Every structure is written in structure tokens, then in C-alpha cells.
Amino acid sequence: MPEGDTIFRTARTLQRALGGHVVTRFTTVLPKLARVDNQTPLAGQTIVRVHAAGKHLLIDFSGGLTLRTHMRMNGSWHIYRPGERWQRPRDDMRIVIETETFVAVGFNIPVAEFTTESPKLGPDLLGETFDIDEALRRVREHGGEEIGNVLLNQQVVAGIGNIWKSESLHAAGVDPFRRVAALDDATIIRILNIARKQLRASANATSRIRHAVYLEKICRKCGTRIEYRKQGEDARGTHWCPRCQR
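-> C-alpha cells emitted (246 positions)
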């Protein structure tokens, strides 16, 4: 599942291509979106802004609607010039937004809706501002849960997934299976600040960032073999170093 940094980069690319331009054509195979577009045609409206909110990608239109998409495991957005051949099969197309200069195609997008409300999320780790006190308060509300699970809860903090959960806890030297109640405020704040720094660095990176523990065999810090285990009710994968994160 794409994490907040990936969605942030996607939104930034779409904003550069589409922001401020007029929609010349909107096409979708998703019945829910098609019904709304028939009532409020997007053609002729301006794309006001494309932005990310956690793992959600939001496209705001001048008519007041926002298209919210969530990529889950297989969804993606591509940008093409008009007439340019698509890199994915046409059967994978779910949404097409055309302007005079670019065509944005959403492939295999499983979650898409028109809305007038923002997603109900916790403080966004990739937001221009980040309310650390509110994030701490929300983490504290889950004192009986493992910190690795709490970081993935988008109503606590938005934008983090398996990769940066594992990486930020490793950088903070915290066992991902430790209960929140066993952590002091300073440790939680350190984890959140590290996660924000790592996500922002990844979002702005021009090349692939090498991970310390995620999908690695050996810890880059101490050389210990990395351990892996499913965590939580959703069995989300966690990578950690048993030496650095005692």
C-alpha cells in the first residue's frame, strides 16, 4: 500500500500538470462517480488543487466537489500528453481527467468518491504544519496497544505505513511491540518527529532511499539479522532489529 510520501509525490506531480487547468473531458467506469458527473458535469470546471491528506489523494474542482481516491495495493495515477500511448492496459482504467495539455489516468483505483468533506484523519505527518501535541494526545488514547499498530492508525496520525513505521521505530530505538503505556512522552514525540522527518525526506528525494530495516536482511546500524513478524489484527508486516530496539 502506498504510504504518505508516495501519495504526496503523486499529488505534487498531478498538481503541476493539472492545477489551474480546465477539464475538457471526464471519463470513468465507476458507476458511483458516473452518476454524480451526470448531475454535475466536471467538463468546463477548473482543477483548483491536487493535494494529499495522509494516504488519500484529493482533487478539488471549482464546482465545489472533491474527488477522493485511495490507492490501496494496486492503484496508481499516470500523466500523459493527449494522444500518448498508455503504459497500462485500457481495461485497468478507472478514471480519466483530460485537459488541453495533459491526461491523468487512474488505473486500478479501488476507492474513489466525490465528496465535499475532508477525510477524518489525525495530524498529517506530511502536512505543512504538524500539531505534535494533538498527535501525542491521540497516541496516548491507545495506551494498551502496541506502538507499531498505533502508528498505522490513520485517525491517530496520517501518512505512515509499514515502511516508515518500521524505519522510524528503528531510528528511535523502540521495540515495535512495546505498549504505548510503557513509553514516556519524550519517546513518543521523538518517534513522531523522526517519522515526519523521514517521510518528508522520502517525499522530496530524487533517488531511492535505502532502508535500514525494511525488507533488509542485516541491520545497517549494528549488523544484527533483521527480524520480521506480522503484527496486529490486520497482520501488517513489521521489520525490526532485536539489538537496536530492545
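The radius of gyration is 20 Å.
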